Amino acid sequence: MDGLLLVFIFAELLHTVRVVLAMDVLRIEPFLMVGIVAAIRRFIVASAEASEEVGRRRFDDLMLELGVLMFAVLVLGFTIWLIRHSTSERQSFDEPDAAD
Fold first, then answer.
1. CA angle 89, 93, 99 (to 5 degrees)
2. What DSSP string describes 31-62?
3. Residue 100 Cα distances to 20, 83, 95, 96, 97, angstroms
4. Roughly how many angstroms between the first and final C-alpha of the chain, as a whole number?
5. Is 76 helix (H, G, I), strand (E, B) or coil?
6. Cα–Cα distance between 100 and 94 in angstroms, integer?
7. Over the stretch 36-67, which tens digit does the pLDDT of each residue have?
8. What is the pTM of this model?
9. What residue ranges do the domains of the chain occupy?
């Protein structure tokens, strides 16, 4: 599972680089998606580690790390939502009305 997520991250990065080179435009969304996938990947690994560390000091550190990772996923997801929302609003303002 860990290897599959890593392959997905590399595939997304390669796709992003191809798009940037082909369109000569840097899009931020794919990089944010890679960040989400990487954070979820680390979350899965840390969750597995935490199950073995119950009752030890490392368990507290892993719980803190899990909280930070989930916060990062939420922030990155919200950022993607904002980008998509602001882009669609900007496009609707740039298009002329059919009535004009």
1. 130
2. HHHHHHHHHHHHHHHHHHHHHH-TTSHHHHHH
3. 36, 29, 11, 7, 6
4. 56
5. helix
6. 14
7. 988 998 999 888 888 888 888 888 889 999 99
8. 0.68
9. 2-92
